[in-house]
Amino acid sequence: MASLSSSHSAASADSAAQAASTVAADTSAARPGANLTALRDHNAAAVLTLVRAAGAGGVSRVELARGSGLTAQAISKIVQRLLEDGLVAESGRGASTGGKPRTLLTLVPDARWALGVQLGRDALTVLRADLAGRVVDSRHLPIDLAGWGPGPVLDLLAEEVGRQLASVAREQVLGVGVASPGPLDQQAGVLHEVTGAPAWNRFPLRDAVADRLGLAAEIEKDSTAGVLSVLGSPNRAFIHLDHGLGAGLVLGGAVQRGARTNAGEFGHQVLDPAGPRCRCGNQGCLEALWQAAATPDQAARLLGEGVANLVRLLDLDEVVLGGREVADAPETYLAAVREVLDARLPDPSWQRVSLTAAPAGRDAVALGAAGLVLARVFG
Ligand SMILES: [Zn+2]
């Protein structure tokens, strides 16, 4: 779900503004989430997931029955609905083991769209992803999260969403996922005291975005959204290096948010109790040491110590590095973290850990936020 091909629509500023006001005007009539149709059904979502996994080669109804454990009759009904909704297409015929050839089914990636947003401290990322999780349009707009406050940021968001949806039928838009710096209450959809941005304290971000855009909305901590941008190992971490250090975690195939949906405060593990003061109030946090590092290599090695701690604590086999700092110097970070990991793990030949830079680059967190919306479709 990480391929990235960025393109920009040729909509003029006028038409973008016009579309944005349409978005605002649609709000009262909107029924967020009403366009999920057949996909509210868990079995249909499971079948669609199998079709997506089959890729361009396609999959037969018989294989879908085998893969899902559903009866041939149930598969036939579900596929019929998915065909009627335009989510899958019949795409030629596969080899048969006898009898008549089997019709193959493939996903129609542009049948629906998901929007992904990253609220950064100085940039707003807005992208549109297709059902296959590919980015088809992406923009990074400068903002001042703390200085502007919610009103002007949501104005800009509505304008950009209007531009990106100008050529898209509204019923094809599944919703919008918004990633934000924490702490936040992911289930209630409300921000807590975002460090250094008091105008956003207790802001009901999810409902405000849903009302403003007339779309079903979800929110997620930025680092947790990042881990959703990669369909990788069931035991993986996404390390988000931006103004601070966070980690998104998937363990046993499930996203881990913790008791208050704030798991992953990776940067605030104390490595030196006598170290420099951290913005969280403690001393010697990894984040404070990383920020005080004299050289990029030293910063990367400190990060490696934190990653090694995390891998040993959770027995991870995949670590993905993302965020602006990594996008700027991927080789520096990958080399240094690899070296520290190999030194710290007792038996690196057995404890193999995949270490990569986020394939979606600067779009990773926003793409993961779009993945929140796509996840509801695919179950
Ligand atoms: Zn700290």
UniProtKB/TrEMBL annotation:
<dbReference type="InterPro" id="IPR049874">
    <property type="entry name" value="ROK_cs"/>
</dbReference>
<dbReference type="InterPro" id="IPR043129">
    <property type="entry name" value="ATPase_NBD"/>
</dbReference>
<comment type="similarity">
    <text>Belongs to the ROK (NagC/XylR) family.</text>
</comment>
<dbReference type="InterPro" id="IPR036388">
    <property type="entry name" value="WH-like_DNA-bd_sf"/>
</dbReference>
<protein>
    <submittedName>
        <fullName>ROK family transcriptional regulator</fullName>
    </submittedName>
</protein>
<dbReference type="Pfam" id="PF00480">
    <property type="entry name" value="ROK"/>
</dbReference>
<dbReference type="InterPro" id="IPR000600">
    <property type="entry name" value="ROK"/>
</dbReference>
<dbReference type="InterPro" id="IPR036390">
    <property type="entry name" value="WH_DNA-bd_sf"/>
</dbReference>
<dbReference type="GO" id="GO:0003700">
    <property type="term" value="F:DNA-binding transcription factor activity"/>
</dbReference>
